[in-house]
Specification:
By secondary structure, this protein is of the alpha+beta class. The protein is built from nine helices and 14 strands. A hairpin with a 4-residue loop joins strand 7 and strand 8. The chain starts with a helix and ends in a 10-residue tail after the last strand.
Length: 274
Amino acid sequence: SAVSSLFGAGVKVFGVLLRPTAAFPSTAGAAEAAMLNVLSDVREEHFLNAEIEDLKGILGTLCDPSQQFGRLIASTATGTGTAKQRQPCPMYFDKDLCNHDPSCRWSSGLLVCSDSACLLHCDKDVCVSDATNLCAWDESTGMCTKRPICDHLMAECPTDPGCKWDAAKSLCVEKVCQHQTESGCLSDPMGCVWKSEEDHCTARPCTYTSKDSCELDMACKWDVTVAGTQPWAPCVAQPCATTDAAVCQADSRRCEWVGNSCKVRPCVEYLDEK
């Protein structure tokens, strides 16, 4: 059937039964049963019975993950590269997070994240010809979105400060940990750390995924108390793990050079008076 074909193609079917007033008419039960038969599972979660005057509000929050329909849509959406939960563009308050969503663009003038103009193109030829908005056609979804970050030819790649040419892959790739904000830096799945004293994002020094490999590196230590979603989260940098006196003394808040080695200053790891 047509409905089975839609489900087979991964289409999610939602239904809103509209009634003219707050009161439920006598035909409401039969109408609900008929509509539920063509909705996606779990059917009751893909269904709303509402007054007709509420329709505008329902459609306006269709992609809001805090609402009934929006939560279901967001949980099955996919991003570039890996499956992830999507959210409406205006809900990104960070420039880096906004620009990494292929459906969104950041306005430096208004300091807000909004839908990319590429989404308005439903025709492939029109999409790929839009050089102003840097649009690209996604064959897997049949949608027009922004070109991926660092989608440049070899000659163009060095002109983008956030990109570099990977000779081994013959691709222009994004530089690791080039984020300008703390939230964007810490959300990078490549593993970045934010140095607050310098307002600078840098690559995480310890990314080993097992205790043994982590502890083989003298600059790292395995700390089971550290929580995180990445497998390398418990592998953290060992403070003052340097044999260079100048590097040690540069971190004078935590480290001190004693004899011929760099030592952690006493008491600096305590976070409160207890």
